[in-house]
Hints:
By secondary structure, the protein is of the alpha+beta class. The protein is built from 7 helices and 6 strands; from the N terminus they run βββααβααββααα. The protein has a single domain (5-155), classed as ATP-grasp fold, B domain (D-amino Acid Aminotransferase, Chain A, domain 1).
Amino acid sequence: xxxxxxxxxxxxxxxxxxxxxxxxxxxxxxxxxxxxxxxxxxxxxxxxxxxxxxxxxxxxxxxxxxxxxxxxxxxxxxxxxxxxxxxxxxxxxxxxxxxxxxxxxxxxxxxxxxxxxxxxxxxxxxxxxxxxxxxxxxxxxxxxxxxxxxxxxxxxxxxxxxxxxxxxxxxxxxxxxxxxxxxxxxxxxxxxxxxxxxxxx
Length: 201
């Protein structure tokens, strides 16, 4: 729980046509708008139990605690330090490491189903959702083949363009590699247009 409210963590994974996998290093925490309870009267209350933005944005409390009901990884690290004495690099070495392990296992389990027609230069971005239990164990909830790309907070307005730009650099730009080489010979390298705090350009 984060201040008594349910949360989960969304991260993005790019899979290319030859099954190379890339983990975008910044994800975000999705929070609920209402205090968690197991009271029978609240079992049907989606604003208590479901953290999806498509659900939470209809809550009267939406955005009261966090912009768009979302926290950055930096915010989550601070919460872990301040409220659970989990100092850096706990998040990277324990939580993120387990996420990456589950992602690898899940993709290994379906690799024969990925790109079955052997199409060249195709790719897919997956949205992986995780939950953390009271003992800080990490659990995979699901992998989404059509993750939401709505810029529903200032955080996502920063992360989504960079994530997509990085994905296109690793995929689409490879198709036009010769053209890029010609441009680099003629023009200085442009600055990164989608900057993310703490993320190397």
